[in-house]
Amino acid sequence: MKHIISVLLENRYGAFNRVATMFSGKGFNIQSISIGETEMPEVSRMTLVTSGDDKIIEQVVKQLNRLIDTIKVIDLTQTPTVIRELAMITVFYQKGTRSEILNVGDIFRGNVVDINNKTITLEITGPPDKIDAAINVLAPYGIKELARSGAVALKRGEQTKDFKKQTNYSQL
Q1: H-state helical runs in 27-138
Q2: Which of 4, 5, 150, 158 has the smallest number of Cβ neighbours within 10 A?
């Protein structure tokens, strides 16, 4: 089962490397990872997607909590959460398929970010299922290139306040 884990880290040299090294050293797989600054520049939020049974995920969370740069770890899988990804998809087109591909982009509320005489590049954001669906619809046209950002996730609404109270950072 896929799990989405949010990790707040000290934003300093080597923090990301320590997480990646822990995963490889313990034999855990990372399906996607995204990281960036939070509203506090000294704190980064890492969103990891990994898979495993409850015992493996418990070990992942314990190992992440043991890292020196870790502030807070939460498994968001069973929590009401907003999850988004960004995908850029370059698709081949011919005269007859150009408008069809543009319509697919409209259906998935995508934006055309590049176009030339052979390819169209669409930017699509949304939940991972929406990105998967767009890829499946575009695949028959011939996907030339694909880049996905990996999941970015936050708890919904009022629960965010509880998350901030649980950390040692009073400004969170």
Answers
A1: 54-66, 98-107, 128-138
A2: 158
User: Distance between CA 82 and CA 152 in Å, rounded?
Assistant: 8
pLDDT tens digits for range 8-53: 999 999 999 999 999 999 999 999 999 999 999 999 999 999 999 9
Query: What ranges make up the beta strands (E) of the chain?
Result: 2-10, 32-37, 43-51, 70-75, 81-92, 111-115, 119-126, 143-148, 152-155
Task: Pick left, alpha or beta for residue 142 (phi over 0 → left; psi -120 to 50 → alpha; otherwise beta).
Answer: left
Radius of gyration from C-alpha coordinates of the chain: 19
CB 138 within 8 A of CB 98: no
Q: What is the pTM of this model?
A: 0.81
